[in-house]
Amino acid sequence: MIFSRKRAGEARHARDERADEVLDSPATEESTAPAASRGPYDVSEAPDAPRLDLGSLQIPAVPDVEVRVQADPQGVIQQVVLVHGDNALQLGVFAAPRSEGIWDEVREEIRQSLYNDGAAAQEVQGEYGIELKARVRTPDGLTDLRFVGIDGPRWMVRGVYQGEAASNPVVAGPLAACLDGLVVDRGQEAKPVREPLPLRLPREVAEQQAAEQQAATQQAAPGQREA
Fold first, then answer.
1. Is 203 helix (H, G, I), strand (E, B) or coil?
2. What is the CATH number of the domain that holds 185?
3. Closest Cα partner for 187 from 175, 196, 174, 178?
4. Any domain includes 73
């Protein structure tokens, strides 16, 4: 299932809107640390902008970026991939403890897993901190991957870039803008650390999907009875 975002300019000013909020907020002596100038945002501090609501993740509307999801018949999403041209960004969001982030630990486990599969991973400094770059062998040949992790309040977002954006962050462009404008709705429920946060299709999309499946079942039923 694909959601396309073709309208230009809808999410372009997310950072500026956030900066305006910071200027409008009353300063106190106790809170001298600057507020986040970009996302991923927690839902409690996210600036207003058009987004696709997938439950725990809200994807900003960025021109020419397609949101591709794999969902089960109940509308529960198994995978989210953003696509722009020949580049892709796979997204995941996970529960984390209140006291500390988990990206350092998760990153080491990814590095070890890649090593066990015969792929060496290199740690590099990125816009969000330390990232992992690796070149892996797939049925289509060698593929570059770049793993990005962002720790938030009781959550962690993991992004995996593919295509030229994996080896050259400069060309990530609209996909990086999606990551910058991402919103996480963690919810208040207690969850095991690293458990994937629930993702779902928007209600109207899930209802349409269910209706199409029901219609397909009804059309197949007469043939099944004849058999």
1. helix
2. 3.40.1000
3. 196
4. yes
For tokens 């897993």, the residue is 113
Quick: pLDDT tens for 170-217.
Answer: 999 999 999 999 999 999 999 999 999 999 998 767 666 666 666 776
Q: What is the mean pLDDT of residues 80-96?
A: 97
Give the relative orientation of helices 173-181 and 14-24 as an angle to the nearest 10 degrees: 30
pTM: 0.78
Sign of the alpha-carbon torsion through 126, 128, 130, 135: negative
Tell me, what's the pLDDT at 84? Answer: 97
Domain membership of residue 109 (yes or no) is yes
State which residues form the domain around 178. 34-200
